[in-house]
Design goal:
Number of helices: 13
CATH class of the largest domain: Mainly Alpha
Distance between the termini: 6 Å
CATH architecture of the largest domain: Orthogonal Bundle
Largest sheet: none
CATH superfamily of the largest domain: MetI-like
Strand content: under 5%
Length: 277
């Protein structure tokens, strides 16, 4: 009987992992707790209460807080349009390169990852003249920011989709569908896209989180989104601004948990069997 001896490199122990998780969690938890404590302060008199949180959830905020709701609506609209732009442009391109032009894979990856290396302030310098043309063609509505946001979410969306795409043999699937007479649109939407569902959902969730937290491009291009509205309201009432910042942070955290759950599901329920020696 032959034996196969494999070198096993044990990872960190259970206690070490929990220590690492605890330290990282503490680094994130301290500022969040400080923000919550800040929103509960009564003022100079001391003490804490929930009056501001109750006012937010009961609709007791006055018209001076209208910019927050306007910015929130604009950010949600931007999130939807950005996800649509990202999926329409990125998914067919990645699939086409994977099937027909595999030699362009490195170039596509480089192009998609470039935006993460460029500061937002530098991107705005290049986008400003482009948006002067966009304003003449499509108007200056806040939804036009989705074109810029589609660029800044590329690195995150590309990685999420590419991870799923690498696990699917799209070449074999496309050839099998073509042998049965399917056209390219049928192959894309009925064969390949269903197999990329996890990657597409993860890319969409990440894009939504990025859009909800973006400030620099919207501020420099004079558009109103959630983050620019929070800066305006913060000058009049920092407590309510911090409450909405916490709610946006909690929403982004829920999206990240959803991404983890989607990515953590096994691709197959089949169990591997050991071959007899």
């Amino acid at each position: 009987m032959s034996r196969i001896v494999a070198d096993v490199h044990p990872g960190p122990g259970r206690r070490t992992r929990w220590i690492i998780i605890g330290v990282i969690g503490l680094l994130f938890l301290v500022p969040v707790v400080a923000m919550i404590e800040f929103t509960l302060r009564k003022g100079l008199g001391g003490g804490y209460d929930l009056s501001r949180w109750i006012a937010v959830f009961s609709g007791g905020l006055g018209p001076e807080y209208k910019p927050i709701f306007t910015g929130l609506g604009n950010s949600l609209l931007l999130a939807v349009v950005t996800v649509a732009v990202m999926l329409v442009l990125l998914v067919p391109t990645m699939v086409l390169v994977r099937i027909q032009f595999p030699k362009l894979q490195r170039m596509l990856e480089f192009v998609c990852l470039v935006p993460i290396t460029i500061p937002a302030i530098v991107l705005v310098v290049g986008l400003a003249p482009v948006y002067s043309v966009i304003a003449r063609l499509f108007g200056s509505g806040v939804w036009t920011l989705a074109f810029a946001y589609g660029v800044i979410v590329l690195p995150y969306a590309y990685r999420a989709i590419q991870t799923n795409l690498a696990a699917v043999d799209v070449v074999t699937l496309s050839e099998a569908a073509r042998s049965l007479g399917a056209g390219w649109l049928t192959i894309l939407f009925r064969v390949i896209v269903p197999n990329l569902r996890r990657g597409l959902l993860a890319a969409s969730f990440i894009s939504v989180a990025v859009v909800l937290g973006e400030f620099t491009i919207a501020a420099l291009l004079n558009r109103v989104n959630l983050q620019t509205a929070l800066v305006v309201v913060n000058k009049a009432d920092p407590f309510v601004a911090v409450i909405f910042a916490l709610l946006a942070l909690a929403f982004a955290f829920v999206l990240l948990i959803a991404i983890g759950r989607i990515g953590g599901r096994p691709h197959s329920s089949h169990r591997s069997k050991k071959a007899p020696a």
